[in-house]
Write the structure tokens for this entry.
Amino acid sequence: MYKVHGETPVTVELIKTVRNITTTILPDEFDLHMVITCLDVLFDYLKSIGKLAIMEGTDSTQLESVCAQLMLILKGEHPCQSEDDDDVPDDEADASETEAVIYDSALEVLVSLSIAFGGEFARIFQSFKDVILAQVNSKSKNKRISTLGSLAEMCNGMKTENPFVTEMLQVFVNKLTDDKSSEVRGNAAYGVGIVIDIEDRRR
């Protein structure tokens, strides 16, 4: 609808309604699949609409609320990740897969925020940096793959205004040289390429 009609009073009001519902649901939602759906909606809206999907004017209240929930998810501390949740799959493999999906969804929202905010995303990323970098050395190969891929995309989102290029380059090079997984090394190589491109554009 936004792509067809643009920023009209009707579309803005619809976006505001969706944004309000999503940010209201997220903090207390115990249903893991509902949380994943909310994250997917945020990802799609941020990608197609930009900042308007998460904040109105200079009011960053809803942005801060979403970031707080993303932090909980990345730490595995969101209410939907509670072991007491009846909606969590009984099978260990299914539960692990579902946990991977919500982790990836949270990272995708951060990637879309980096694209929407550009250099301004550096301030947001600063609070997430240590939590995300800790997963670069996760025992889970899938987490290492998705984390490195997302870090590369966030670097790309911040473009030449990225203040973390030196640190990120070291992370990518380390994983490129010492990880046993070819898929992990592939995403690390992708990250190296993005950082080099950023440095080239700064010259």
About this structure: The chain has nine helices and no strands.
